[in-house]
Amino acid sequence: EAVADADVICTVTAATEPILEGRWVAPGAHVNLVGSAMPTAREADTDLVVRARVFTDRLESVFAEAGDVVIPLEEGAIDRDHVLGEIGAVAAGLLEGRRTSDEVTVFKSLGVGVEDVAAGRLVYDRAVARGVGTPVALGGLRPGLAGRAGGDPI
User: What sign does the dihedral 31-46-77-58 (CA atoms) show?
Assistant: First the structure.
């Protein structure tokens, strides 16, 4: 019921067996598969992966770590070309994403640290430019603490 009419579905779990079935996903939906980053665990069933245009954050990782892709590959339901490419290529206009309004798309995220850092920097820069947020000291040199525990450079 929760996903039947959803336009965007995000799974962020430690599931080892599918918690999302392709038959539940409406035409035109986009699915972010964020959890279960092990080749033997998955959040979505094979039907969903077969139905969808599949993208990832890093091709090398998806074929080694993502059970959502590895298991359908091992079953022979898809081949490696079924994963169309990296989401950055879609964002850069180098790779076509959704082609029609009724296509189901899937983004299998495995977490790429440099993307997290870039996203964090973007959020930080925009917050500073708008004068919003609360500064928090996370380490390094802090005024008045040099030479004391917690005040030396990291």
Answer: positive
d(CA 106, CA 78): 14
CB atoms within 10 A of CB 72: 22
pLDDT tens for the chain, residues 1 to 154: 999 999 999 999 999 999 999 999 999 999 999 998 899 999 999 999 999 999 999 999 999 999 999 999 999 999 999 999 999 999 999 999 999 999 999 999 998 888 788 888 999 999 999 999 988 877 666 555 555 555 444 4
**d(Cα 60, Cα 147) in Å, to the nearest integer?**
45
Query: In this structure, what token pair is assigned to residue 100?
Result: 């029609």
Amino acid identity for residue 113 in this structure: G
* Pair 16, 36: CB distance under 8 Å: yes
CA 86 → CA 112, 122, 128, 146, distances in Å? Answer: 11, 20, 30, 45
Contact 56, 62 (CB under 8 A): yes
